[in-house]
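From the methods appendix. Each design record in this collection lists the tokenized structure first, followed by the designed amino acid sequence. Records were kept in a plain field format so they could be parsed without special tools. The example shown here is representative of the layout used throughout.

RECORD:
FOLD TOKENS (50 positions):
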């Protein structure tokens, strides 16, 4: 039995996909936070100008 059997390949791919999903989720979260911060900044800037 070699190292590259179906079970090991599936385990590896599952780990890989889980890690990739985690990275994607973190990126989405960062973008949402940045959007909120930008929105708050713009609101406060508008209030100062008025």
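DESIGN:
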């Amino acid at each position: 039995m070699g190292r590259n059997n179906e079970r090991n390949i599936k385990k590896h791919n599952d780990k890989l996909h889980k890690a990739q999903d985690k990275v994607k989720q973190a990126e989405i979260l960062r973008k949402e936070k940045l959007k909120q911060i930008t929105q708050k900044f713009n609101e406060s800037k508008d209030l100062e100008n008025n």
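APPENDIX NOTE: The chain has one domain: 1-50.
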